[in-house]
User: Fold this.
Amino acid sequence: MILQFRERRIENEWGLLERIVAVNGGLVETLGRHSAPEENRFRLALHETEGILRTVTGKRLVSSHIAGVCFTRFFPCTPIEVNLETPIFHPNVDPKNGFVCLWRKFSAVETVLEVLRRLQRIVTWSWVNLEIAHVLQPDAVHWYQDAERKLALPLSFRPLTCPKDYLPGPEPSDQVRRRLERIPY
Assistant:
């Protein structure tokens, strides 16, 4: 029963991703899909979203990114994960494997649309989480906090348009949210 729910949810996420691609004129493109017992992965390109790439000679801006959106074995009880094939310079992106720390708190109703919107904001430095548990590049924190930094942040991006038929899941009530936050992990 749970496996069927997971598979149905992943199919819905793929359908949503296809609708996102259709309404965003070249901003997002699907590059493939892979299914395995332990995870399902969507590979996509995100364009018109400036990020900073660290090179041997310094830093340069890039506006296209290849990402893997991963639904782990226990999805939707575990968060959707994202890895950038070419890691960008950002406190919340692992410089070795491109893992993007998207979630401070996660809800099972989060969709691929929210993932892409968060990814855009992280890549462009619109969102930066400086909590130590979420910092994967400490030198990026120092650069971000440097008053002498020459690059103005946040960087530019074209925001994603939501498909007209998209109906996000209901937000939990405040009472339910408080109860969930008290559960020890």
Remarks:
- The CA atoms of residues 111 and 143 lie 32 Å apart.
- The first strand starts at residue 28 and ends at 35.
